[in-house]
Amino acid sequence: MGSRYDVIISGAGPSGSLLGFLLSQNNIDTLIIDKKNFPRYKTCAGGLQDRTIDLIPFDIKNTIQKSLDSILFSFRGRDSFTRKYSSTIIHTVDRREFDHFLAARAIENGCIVRFGKEVIDFESNNGGVTVRTGNGKYSSKILVGADGIRGLVHRRIIGRAAILKILGYELEKKSGPDEDREKKEHIGLDFGGSPKGYLLTFPREDVIAYGIGGPVGTARLMRKYFGQCLKKDVFGNNWTGQKIMAQCIPIRTENTPLCRERILLIGDAACLGDGFTGEGLYNAFRSSHAALEGIVSALKRSEFSFKDYRESVNTAYTRILRAPLLFQEYFLHIPSFFINY
């Protein structure tokens, strides 16, 4: 295989793999580079809404483990009640399997994917972009950062710009046949335990994910409440030897950088997390579709400022991303009022 491509994507997560699929579908020569070998663990409860699935142009039903239509609400572990809805709220997936499946579909569609290679440097000029890994160099007309908040492309484009962050802690446990029956049937949401945050349980096929999320500034209080719940065995489980994982979800502001000449960001790298729930896959997939349009236009016109992509995401910020931040201020400030209502 050659080392020259139309587009190089750094990161084979959901947004990068979907974009790789879409680009290859449009006969755009695309390479995805990811430092991990797939399948790999990803800290995420693994929830997909119907609107998220609608953005995936192929069947993913074999990756769905549970489809849930009810939520068990509680306030600081008390006053719990269950609400059942008329349709599915969330489909749960194992992110190891789901992400691997998306990458495999990109490969089947003609996208080249290099696992186990890390982007360690890149430079761009009027002639294109050169990407360097530990194993060699690749060149392209366009570079896409789909490498999350720890990735090099994200860090270079975002720089020191201020972004908001939601921090999540997660712990997974194999579910038993009887003791977890209630938790296998409902999404669990507990409010009031930490400021502007919530505790959740997400059941999958044979695993239940337990987690807590909230603004980074409340990390100490989140850890304390999560620890209290585990210590009191609120979940009815033995947690000996279980490892708690952490993940930051970036939330953009109106001034968060998104692209520069020949380089653009998508997904978490573009800071597209939901400011209320912390959910990121819906906005990540929307950004993949928007990036496809921007890249097709750029290649056609040989003009690589991605002004149309920037405008598309900024419009979405005003219409879709800003509202959850406002709702967070009201709901999570006085959750007991909304729950009781």
Describe the model.
It is a single chain. With 341 residues, this protein is an alpha/beta fold. The chain has a domain of 197 residues: FAD/NAD(P)-binding domain. The strands form 3 sheets. Strands 1, 2, 8, 9, 10, 11, 17 and 18 form an 8-stranded mixed sheet that branches. A 7-stranded mixed sheet has the order 6-5-13-14-15-12-16. The protein starts with a strand and ends with a helix.
Q: According to CATH, what is the class of the domain at 4-52 and 95-163 and 253-331? A: Alpha Beta
How many helices does DSSP assign?
Answer: 9
Which stretches are poorly predicted, pLDDT < 50 over at least 5 residues?
none
The CATH topology of the domain at 4-52 and 95-163 and 253-331 is FAD/NAD(P)-binding domain
User: Mean pLDDT across all residues, rounded?
Assistant: 87
Q: Please give the CATH architecture of the domain at 4-52 and 95-163 and 253-331.
A: 3-Layer(bba) Sandwich
**H and E order:** EHEEHEEEEHEEEEHEHEEEHEEEHHH
Query: Quick one: CATH superfamily of the domain at 4-52 and 95-163 and 253-331?
Result: FAD/NAD(P)-binding domain
